[in-house]
Structure formats: structure tokens, C-alpha cells
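Quick one: sequence plus flavin-adenine dinucleotide SMILES, need C-alpha cells.
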Amino acid sequence: MIGGGPAGLMAAEMLAEHGISVDLYDAMPSAGRKFLMAGRGGLNITHTDPPEKFLARYGARAPRIAPLLAGFGPDELRAWVHRLGIKTFVGTSGRVFPAEMKAAPLLRAWLHRLRGAGVRFHMRHRWQGLEQADHGIRLSFATPEGDKEARADVVVLALGGGSWPKLGADAAWLPVLQSLGIAIAPLRPANCGFDTDWSEHFRTRFAGQPVKRVAIDGRQGEFVVTAAGVEGSLVYALSAGLRDAIEAEGSVTVALDLVPEREPARLAEALSRPRGNASLANHLRKTIGLTGAKAGLLRELAKPEDLASPARIAKAIKSLPLRLLRPRPLAEAISTAGGVAFEALDERLMLRALPGVFCAGEMLDWEAPTGGYLLTACFAGGRAAGLGAAAWLGRQARPSSRSSMNSSARL
Ligand SMILES: Cc1cc2nc3c(=O)[nH]c(=O)nc-3n(C[C@H](O)[C@H](O)[C@H](O)COP(=O)(O)OP(=O)(O)OC[C@H]3O[C@@H](n4cnc5c(N)ncnc54)[C@H](O)[C@@H]3O)c2cc1C
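Reply:
Sure thing.
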């Protein structure tokens, strides 16, 4: 096993359950760093969407993810978490979280169980490449003690995407696999923020401020104004389409509704109340409660003529043009689109060009919104790759056996 994130650990578990001796290598000093980071803001492990809706979250790759979820879907994932002694609960939006919302207790219990099952962890081992040899697969690693080699009968690569590279997944695997003839779709940011061209005045006053209860292109939610543009849950939810539109058109202009709960006619009516000597800012505040960053966005994005009458102001508030120039860099994104093409893999997630080498997790060419869909597919893919690798070795399930066999897997 190479890669100690959720996908790699799950593959390791499957192999160990089949009585296969597992060595797990990871470049970082400890396993599951991104998983732990995911737990910082509340570990959204999966979702209670009905199956069809759940699958639709994977967009064009839904047919590729379907068989993985058929083997290990949201219900199986929750049951698996429960077997680790961690309770789960369903949040208001149907999102599923472990008790206490954190990843650390789950990861701790899981690593303990894996060690108990005989999985050996080799940290600070940065995988550099592999080569098919006469007796298995030769792997090379860079370690603090210098370069090392290892041999395995089967290998699972679960190296993650390219976001938040400080947590370990830095996509250095991409040129290595490319040089071995593996088809890889370019890596792109997913669940990411976007740059826009705020005026200096707006940027200085409002960067860092949340903008709640708004709608972008008809979808309600909230976002955060950043120095460079916008980020946050509503932006992430729309990000795949926005990114694709920018790639096709050079930029994209979305319609921002600052008061989605009110009809334009009602807004115009309220704004028609006598203004007297009040400034526009005061009038907006008194009549429709528009203040802070929302009022700032109106000033920033509306043309002067849009503010000429109550009806025009109401119209502008309901549909401000916000031009997005480019997604934020991959390193800042929550997740990665692109990766190892499914066409390069067989149905067990083995690389067709490299028999005995399997791939799983975020390094594959799929993407999904936040909401637990990312982790669910990583766990499901890790399980499929682990089972595929075990089947490749021709093993029968021997759930309680320790590793007394000759076969070995490197993850
Ligand atoms: C801030 C943040 C919050 C998130 N929140 C959620 C959430 O709430 N719900 C959700 O579903 N998803 C969430 N995600 C996404 C989720 O964490 C990832 O999709 C998931 O961790 C990917 O799992 P993975 O096993 O494929 O890769 P990773 O977890 O990235 O693990 C890959 C491992 O491979 C190792 N590695 C990489 N290259 C090498 C190499 N050359 N040699 C050796 N080892 C290597 C890395 O060190 C790492 O340990 C979040 C992500 C971020 C950044």
C-alpha cells in the first residue's frame, strides 16, 4: 500500500482481512493528515441522500462510481464506522457526521485495529516509482535515511489528489505514472473559490466577511468575501460548473441575489417609502435591512444607473452581475478533479498497463461536491482496490488470520 489516507487505509484493511501481509508506506510522518483536517470543520463522512440522488453527485463519472458504491455505500460506511466504536448522527441537511464531529477518534481506533491486523506502517517513505521485476513489483522510496527499495506481489496506490499539498497529497505521482504510459486527465481544482476583480475600496472593507442567505444563479446558501474573490459552501457547490464555464469562455458572470426571500415587487414597494435626506445606505438599511457586506456588494456590482429608482434598485439587488475570472489554485481547493482515467483501469481498479498495480481514492478521475460524497467514494474505492488486489493474489477470505503467508502487498 502506498498512501495512508482513507482510500489506502481501507485497501490495507481489505488485504489484511484476507490474510495478506501488508506494508503501508506514506511520505508523511503520520497517516491520514487530510482526513484529520477534514474533521476540523466537522467530519462530514457521508450523506443520507436516496441512492439515485447520491450517485448523481458524481456527475459524468456516476457510472464509474456506481459499482464502487454498490459494494460499500453510505449505509455500509456508517455501519463500518459504528463497528469502530464511533456513533454517527444525521445533521439537519442530511449530512452524516461521527459523534463529536471529529476525525481523530475514528482514525485512532482504525489505526489501532489495522496494526492489530498486522499492517506495518512505514512513514516518511516517499514513493518515487515502480518497475515490474521477475519476482513481483520493485518499488523505490526516498526516506530520511536515503533511497530504499521494496518488493511486493501486489501494489495499491492511493496517493490522493493535489489539493492542500502540505498534508501529503502533492500529486508528485502524476509524472511518474504518466511516464509509465498511464492516461491521466489534467488535475483541476474542485470545491474551490474564485477570483474576481474587487475594487481596492471593497476589498479593504469587506475581505473576510461572510455573506449569508443569498442566492447565486438561483441556488441559496452563503459565501465569504475574500481578498481575491469569493469562497465558501455556496461557491463550492457551484464550483465544478463555474470552473468548466471559465475554461470554455475565459470568465463567467453569475447572478447574485442579495435577498432571495423577497420578491422584487415587495422590495421596490419597501424602497419607495419616502427617503427624505437619508443617504442611500441609510435608506437601504431602514427599508429592507440591507447592511454590511450585502450593501457593499450592491455598491460594488451595480452600475450607477441601476440605483436611480426603487424599482431599479430592487431589480439590481435580485440579480447583481458577479464576474468570476478564474478558480483559485489547486493547492487551495478542497478536492481535485481529474486524475488516473477510468479507461486505464479494469473493473477491479487495476491498471491495465501494470498488472498487479491498483489505484484508488481522490487520485482517480472523478469529482463530487462536499457533503460526504468525497470520503464515501474514497472509502468505497479503497475497498474495491483492496479486494481486487486480494483477488489478484488468488486469496480466499480468512478474516481472522495473521500474515503468515508469502504474498505481500505494499500500499
Ligand atoms: C479542508 C478539507 C476539508 C475536507 N472535508 C471533507 C468532508 O467533510 N467530507 C468529505 O467527504 N471530504 C472532505 N474533504 C476531502 C477528503 O479529505 C479527501 O477527499 C480524502 O482525504 C481523499 O482521500 P485519499 O485517501 O484518496 O487521499 P489523501 O487523504 O490525500 O491521502 C493520500 C496519502 O498519500 C500520501 N502520499 C501522496 N504522495 C505520496 C508519495 N509519493 N509517497 C508516499 N505517500 C504519498 C499522502 O501523504 C497521504 O497520506 C476535505 C478536504 C479538505 C482539504
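The chain has two domains: 6-190+334-396, 194-327. The pocket of flavin-adenine dinucleotide is lined by residues 2-8, 25-28, 33-35, 37-38, 43-44, 126-127, 158-160, 163-164, 168-169, 172-173, 334-335, 361-362, 370, 372, 374-375, 378 (CB under 6 Å).
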